[in-house]
Design goal:
The protein is built from eight helices and no strands.
Length: 173
């Protein structure tokens, strides 16, 4: 896959998915991991994790993917193409308040939201199936879930704690 093909792929996925960020993961996994074989699941997860613990938009993980595949030029180009649709839609938002109140747009938005949840859930299950292979990885997963979802702790703190536990268990067992 060439640099321009990667940029086009990310641009198209971004335009076709509402809420991008995690919603693009199943599409990127299918294309870049399963079909093209240019990334591994671990590399895709690494890119997403880095984006989640750094300030800024969640969809900046595509910059990590661009960097992994094509260096700084790939990072810059993928960052530009992930931002373009949002900026292009800014003039359209002026009329959204009026349109957003219509029954059709509310129904469409609810459908998009449900679809997004389904895509994220499917991607999560697919990634979990390949990543959670032993009891230590399941323990780190459970610890991260409890810290972030149940106890509402900061994602960075949860990442550091759970990763440290995983590292310690791996080294001492």
């Amino acid at each position: 896959m060439g640099l321009l093909n990667l940029a086009l792929l990310i641009f198209v996925f971004n335009v076709l998915t509402f809420g991008n960020g995690p919603i693009m993961i199943p599409l990127l996994q299918k294309s870049l991991v399963d079909e093209q074989g240019v990334l591994t699941v671990d590399q895709l997860l690494y890119a997403f994790t880095i984006a989640r613990v750094t300030p800024g938009q969640a969809n900046v993980y595509v910059a990590s993917i661009g960097y992994m595949l094509y260096g700084i030029v790939g990072a810059i180009l993928t960052t530009i193409v992930i931002q373009l649709p949002g900026y292009a839609m800014l003039p359209l938002l002026k009329g959204y308040e009026r349109l957003g109140a219509t029954r059709a747009v509310r129904g469409f938005t609810r459908g998009l939201t449900s679809t997004s949840v389904g895509l994220i859930f499917a991607a999560t299950l697919g990634i979990a199936r390949t990543s959670l292979t032993g009891w230590i990885s399941w323990l780190v997963f459970a610890l991260t879930f409890v810290l972030t979802y149940v106890l509402k702790r900061n994602a960075i703190l949860s990442l550091v704690i759970a990763s440290a536990v995983g590292l310690a268990l791996t080294l001492w067992l």
